[in-house]
Amino acid sequence: MSGKSTRQERVPAPPDGGYGWGVLIASFFIGFIIDGCMYSFGIVLPDIKDNFKETQEKINLLSSLNTGFLFCSGPIVAGLTNQLGIRPVVMGGAVVTALCYVVSTYSPSIYLVMISYGVIGGISTGCTYISSLIIVAQYFDRLQGVATGVTMAGSGVGAYAFAKFSQILIESFGWKETLIILGSIILQCCLLGALLRPVPTKPKPKIYEQNLVEEVHTFSGSVLSINEVRHIQKKNGTGSLIIGILKEMGNVSLLGKNIGLLFITLSNFFIFSGYFIPFLFIPIRAKQLDIADSSFILGLIGLVNIPSRLGFGFLADARFISPINLNTLCVIMACGSLWSYSFLNTYNLQLLFAVWFGTAIGGLNCVTTPYLKDIVGMENFSNAMGIINLFRGVGCFLGPFLGGIISEKFSVVASFVYSATMFSFGLIFAFLVSFGIRFGLFRTASYKAANTNEI
User: Fold this and answer.
1) In sequence order, what are the residues at sequence separation of 6 or more whose Cβ sits closer than 8 angstroms to the Cβ of residue 12?
2) Phi-psi category of 224—alpha, beta or left, where left has phi over 0 and alpha has psi -120 to 50?
3) If you compute the radius of gyration of the chain from its CA atoms, what whole number of angstroms results?
4) Which residues have CB under 8 Å from 16's CB, separation 6+?
């Protein structure tokens, strides 16, 4: 057997510790930096708006494009990591993202900022962030739940820390210098990525290929399986790989076969159409209410995310309440916080909203994997995760843009009403799925409740 064939027969051997802890720490700080910068970007937007003298809907497109392309970058990340490896993709993505932040400060037009920060920056951010999550899955098997929880906690801590930090930078220097400083911090992800050395390997067992598909898609949300990527690349070259990725990005045929998946996908589309509205408009609303420390309100949303993810994750694993019902509960909580926002006109009430809303979205983010496994089964899980993230990305494209139009024509509070309306539509479809699964209407052949006594 040739050396090449031998290499193809070797697969990752998760050490569940050892150097994996170093990888885990590096991934934690990558999430800390990437999500910290992304969730605090709403603090920078008002100054960008004043600089370019543009409408709110155009300014919000910056965030829409960035988050939308990040969600939709899963198939691209899958292809790049299989061609180049995880470490160079993480490092390259960090360099490109940092450059996008810096280049945006020299752009004479808001449309060039949309391209640099929104489109290119969104894809490059996905390359860094998603790849760092994939390698954690490769290093940990038995302890994967703990490792994932620690990694995702970096997002909440980063959102809290960078909100205040960005506010200080804006007040001290201005938006251009702030983006340059944030870009230089993102560049540190290149150094962190250098620590993500490839996982040790072992001879490939027969069941490996299915397990690998499940692992990768839990984190990347790519419709195209990693084994399909390898097969296309080996058989037809890079050109066919790119065509295959683009083709699979639009592979949503599973929606027509599973009504439960269709409804929960529509629910996610509506939810993520309103998801980022608070992050963008809380600083503007706080200024209207003469609240000086809006950054702490945003940071608190990220901070309460941490115990919320851990708590709802425990409940989902324990199966006292089914994951899909936990999801519905979280959407109800988010709806309540958003519908009440127009009455929260003091600093303390704004903090109450941050705790309430942050708890809700923390739960939403951590129960996606378990409820998808319940709805479609493991054999269709990777495809379903890709479809969900694709529709989330489309929602992220449209939501902040429409919210900006509404805030310009009516008021900032009206944009929160829009967000509450989107979450309410999402709640309708989430409730239909909960009802359907509870009474066996959407239950597929692969659905098996782990506990017949669960709610």
Assistant:
1) 138, 139, 199, 200, 201, 202, 212
2) beta
3) 21
4) 139, 140, 141, 142, 143
What are φ and ψ of residue 11, in 5° steps? -135, 165
* Average pLDDT, rounded, for the chain: 77
User: In what helix (H) or strand (E) does residue 10 lie, and over which residues does it extend?
Assistant: strand 10-12
Q: Which long-range contacts (CB under 8 A, 24 or more apart) does 402-409 make?
A: 402/57, 402/273, 403/57, 403/60, 403/274, 403/277, 403/280, 403/281, 404/55, 404/56, 404/57, 404/58, 404/59, 404/60, 404/61, 405/55, 405/56, 405/57, 407/56, 407/281, 407/284, 408/55, 408/56, 408/57
The Cα-based distances of 428 to 274, 353, 382 in angstroms read 15, 22, 25
Tokens found for residue 201: 């390997």
Higher per-residue pLDDT: 138 or 28 = 28
* Distances in whole angstroms, Cα of residue 177 to Cα of each of 43, 104, 107, 190, 422: 14, 11, 14, 21, 35
59, 148 Cβ separation under 8 angstroms:
no
- Are 69 and 123 contacting, i.e. CB atoms less than 8 angstroms apart? yes
From 148, 129, 122, 179, select the one nearest 16 (Cα to Cα): 148
* Residue whose C-alpha is closest to residue 399's, from 87, 71, 116: 71
pLDDT, tens digit, 9 for 90 and up, residues 47-66: 888 888 887 778 878 888 88
Local structure of 36: helix, strand or coil: helix
Length of the chain as a residue count: 455
CB 338 within 8 A of CB 372: no
Q: How many helices (H) does the chain have, and how many strands (E)?
A: 22, 2
Tell me, what's the pLDDT at 227? 43
407 CB-near residues (< 8 Å, 6+ apart)? 56, 281, 284, 414, 415
Q: Decide: 254 and 391 in contact? Cβ < 8 Å.
A: no
* Residue 323 vs residues 307, 317, 447: alpha-carbon distances, Å: 17, 8, 13
Contact 107, 116 (CB under 8 A): yes
Q: What is the end-to-end Cα distance of the chain in Å, rounded?
A: 55
Interatomic CA distance for residues 353 and 340, integer angstroms: 9
Q: How confident is the model at residue 443 (pLDDT cuts 50, 70, 90)?
A: low
Q: How confident is the model at residue 186 (pLDDT cuts 50, 70, 90)?
A: very high
Confidence of residue 251 (pLDDT cuts 50, 70, 90): low
What is the rounded CA–CA span in Å between residue 382 and residue 377? 10
